[in-house]
Design brief:
By secondary structure, the chain is of the alpha+beta class. It contains eleven helices and six strands. The chain has two domains: 144 residues, Up-down Bundle (Four Helix Bundle (Hemerythrin (Met), subunit A)), CATH 1.20.120; 84 residues, Nonspecific Lipid-transfer Protein, Chain A (2-Layer Sandwich), CATH 3.30.1050.
Amino acid sequence: MTKRAAIEALCDDLLAECRELDRFVSALSDEDWTAVTPFFAWTVRDQILHLHQVDRFGLVSLAGADDFRALVTEVRARQAEGLELSEQVRREFAGSSHAKVLETWRQGYERICAELRAAADGYRIAWFGPEMGIASFATARLMEVWAHGQDIYDLFGVKREPTDRIRHICEIGVRTFGWSFRNRGLEVPKRPQVMLVAPSGEELRWDGESDEVVSGPALDFAMVVTQRRSPQDTRLVASGPAASQWLDIAQCFAGPPQTPAATGSRPPI
């Protein structure tokens, strides 16, 4: 597969992930939209607002680095006033209906998927941290839509049918092995091999730097690296101390170290 074809396939998967969550939340009642999910006590509305906010940041960055730098300055100034990102977007949409929030998110994700697909080869997206390539950014967006969607499904006790799109989340989970340790001020051990089974039955494998191994269902691995399940609530097998420690602290998203889901705090996989 060429690099261009891979980007287009990734954008297809991102769009499919967004639309799947869209279909689910579209059927929720107004009361459901104010229900509190297991993530940071955010409501369903908060989750969708967050997804829209980050999509919008991405669209600004795709428009040009100068525009994005101006946005960062504005966002940081409001944070200095005590308004974190989630509160900023809550206030912005305080007068909007849930239906309006949903439609705004929908228009944004459709647009960003199209713009990522059309971006020039080699384009680098300016971001709050290091710049990212198109593939890395699209993968991060897919991971976040999937993870925040999981919070919503868990709230209502719904088991969604896993798809092989989950391999993208596993990929970013493996790539952030070192980050998970450095983010906590820990020495980075040699990375274990990762051997997973996708929902379709396809075997997914990442070579490691040691004889240690993490193995099991790709779904379970994605749940752990996004901190949506405790390793103890999964079918993952970690052979070796570094492998076990990694699963306990894995964090495939940016930001300060977060406390993973406590054992038994979420529905069974």
